[in-house]
Amino acid sequence: MLSYLEIVKNLLKIGDSIELKKDEENIYDEYAVEVLFIVMKLWYVPKYYSKEFCKMIDSNAPYDAKISRLDIETPSPDEWSQIRIKINKVQ
Questions:
Q1: β 17-22/83-89 pair status
Q2: Is 2 or 31 the better-scoring residue by pLDDT?
Q3: Phi and psi at residue 28, in whole multiples of 5°?
Q4: CA–CA distance from 48 to each of 27, 28, 40, 51, 56 (Å)?
């Protein structure tokens, strides 16, 4: 059976579109934002960024979010620190 990380490694590519969604039921972070790929929750936006992401989501401004860096092969105590997303406002 594949681990969650192995599934993510096999699915994600640089340039893939992702969705950002507020998790209003999260008891650990009142501004928690989920990062979704297709219908699968991948991870949460780190707490120190989540408030700004919530402001963006609440503004209802159209945006385009894509994976801009994907380096999950690098050993790291924080596996997700090597996945970055780029957000562009849509005009």
A1: unpaired
A2: 31
A3: -95, -25
A4: 16, 12, 23, 7, 15
DSSP assignment letter at 74 = S
| Residue 82 and residue 14 in contact, taking contact as beta carbons nearer than 8 Å | no
DSSP states of 4-32: HHHHHHHH--TT-EEEEEE-TT-SS-TT-
Q: Is residue 57 classed exposed, middle or buried when 0-12, 13-18 and 19+ CB atoms within 10 A define those classes? A: middle
Chain centre distance of CA 3 = 19
User: pLDDT digits over 29-40, tens only?
Assistant: 999 999 888 878
